[in-house]
Design a protein that fits this description.
cell cycle; 2 domains; disordered C terminus; binds uridine-diphosphate-N-acetylglucosamine; UDP-n-acetylglucosamine1-carboxyvinyl-transferase, Chain; binds phosphoenolpyruvate; cell wall biogenesis/degradation; 15 helices; cytoplasm
Length: 435
């Protein structure tokens, strides 16, 4: 069992290059399967979700390979079946994008239920509603489900809730459907825009991505092209918070500052200072962390995926902070672990009440999902002594080379490739809580 050893490190200093966005990459890899020839995607991170997708598409007959310049070439010309191994498709969240990507061409897709970070129940009713409106039929079995459509036809779809996943899936399905599809109350996330940009480069006819109404006029053919995935705004956010957490100065490179506008504004209220220059942002600790109130929301709201690192930071704020988690009201798995480290946090009805400033101390803690993991790394950097973090496989779903990136900022963090020994446990206080 791999684990992370994190030691208290004041003042992280330096600069990190931000990789391509996981969430966008997962959509782009599926979108590429809509083309009739090779799509080249640049900047796709080599994370575990990517590797599972490679296995899935290869089994269907897709040729996929990473070249020496790290670009991923995808050719879907020879797909000979669309039955996806349920175990593999359930090991990450977005296998459902293969419904949108494959249904118009092949008429049938079979796959396992969505996995990924199951911090709360994550319904897919809006995906089903949208695809059914376009003519798809769903049949649900115990471990997998099948979706069939003789022909997908354009439809006007109103989403009952703003969802990036269902917006993307519907765009994929509509790209080669017959007629025009209008998506209303659509998500405006940069990942939605990135997917629309790739599809348009392939020859699709999509307008309005980035607003709440998207129009897609189906086309009969989509072609190959080259596209670079947008940078990961969520990883960038976590690194920018690390400056505040450790009293340091951290620069993130190769990002789109516009994607982080809400984030920067909120963090400025909390006491961090920022300098934006071209495609870099530098975050400076001022030595002050002010308590605040935050509500997460769909883009351009404060991202739910940065709520966890922010929670770690607010344990160090002077006074009481309140975080209302509006996207996934029960997404607080990290809180119990922070409490183990000495944080004073109470959660009630989707709201976390954080009393600061608390002295964090070493402990054995468990990362149950990607962002909980990054939250615990940040807490470990501020905690007295040595923190052991298990659940590394969850962190690896979202962050490529996370350890090396933190090390390059001076962080004392190492990946341990062995079981936690009694000696290690003693070093973090001698108690190995049941995880
Ligand atoms: C791979 C990926 O891109 N993951 C991101 C994506 O997940 P994902 O695409 O799954 O999240 P959605 O944007 O769909 O979810 C937003 C909200 O809509 C609700 N909902 C969603 C679909 C549906 O059919 N019915 C429904 O009620 C969800 O419960 C949630 O409250 O956006 C989330 C919200 O920004 C992020 O936390 C995830 O990191
Ligand atoms: C929830 C997340 O991912 P996924 O939707 O892939 O589970 C995340 O990236 O924080």
């Amino acid at each position: 069992m791999k684990w992370l050893k994190v030691e208290q490190t004041p003042q992280l200093q330096g600069s990190v290059k931000i990789p391509g966005s996981k969430n966008s990459s997962l959509a782009l890899l599926a979108a590429a399967c809509l083309a009739d020839d090779t799509v080249i995607l640049k900047g796709i991170p080599n994370i575990s979700d990517y590797r599972v997708i490679c296995e899935i598409v290869k089994e269907m007959g897709v040729e996929i390979e990473r070249d020496t310049d790290d670009a991923v070439h995808i050719n879907s010309n020879k797909i000979f079946h669309t039955t996806i191994d349920p175990k593999k498709s359930s090991s990450f969240r977005t296998a459902y994008y293969f419904i949108g990507a494959l249904l118009s061409k092949f008429g049938k897709v079979s796959l396992g239920y969505p996995g990924g970070d199951n911090f709360v129940s994550r319904p897919i009713d809006q995906h089903i509603k949208a695809l059914e409106k376009m003519g798809a039929k769903f049949t649900f079995h115990e471990d997998y489900y099948e979706v069939e459509a003789e022909e997908l036809t354009g439809a006007t779809i109103y989403f009952d809730t703003i969802t990036s996943g269902a917006t993307i899936n519907s765009m994929l399905a509509a790209a080669r459907a017959k007629g025009t599809t209008i998506l209303m109350n659509a998500a405006r996330d940069p990942e939605v825009v990135d997917t629309a940009m790739l599809l348009n480069k392939m020859g699709a006819n999509i307008s309005g991505a980035g607003t709440d109404t998207i129009k897609i006029t189906g086309v009969s053919q989509l072609n190959g092209c080259t596209h670079t995935v947008i940078p990961d705004r969520l990883i960038a956010g976590a690194f920018l918070i690390s400056a505040g957490m450790t009293g340091g100065t951290v620069t993130v490179q190769d990002i789109v500052p516009e994607h982080l506008r809400t984030f920067i504004s909120k963090l400025q209220e909390i006491g961090l200072e920022f300098m934006v220059e071209g495609n870099t942002i530098t975050s400076y600790s001022t030595g002050k962390i002010r308590a605040t109130r935050v509500r997460t929301g769909m883009y351009p709201g404060f991202p739910t995926d940065v709520q966890q690192p922010l929670t770690a930071l607010l344990t160090q704020a002077d006074g009481k902070s309140i975080i209302s988690e509006k996207v996934y009201p029960n997404r607080f798995n990290h809180v119990q672990q922070l409490i183990r480290m000495g944080a004073d946090i109470k959660v009630r009805s989707g709201v976390a009440f954080i009393k600061g400033k608390t002295h964090l101390k070493s402990s054995v803690v468990h990362a149950s999902d990607i962002r909980a993991g990054i939250c615990l790394i940040l807490a470990g950097l501020a905690a007295e002594g040595q923190t052991a973090i298990t659940g590394v496989q969850h962190i690896e779903r979202g962050y490529e080379n996370v350890v090396e990136a933190f090390q390059s900022l001076g962080a004392r963090i190492t990946l341990q490739d062995s079981n936690l020994s009694h000696n290690d446990i003693e070093k973090v206080g001698g108690v190995y809580h049941s995880l």
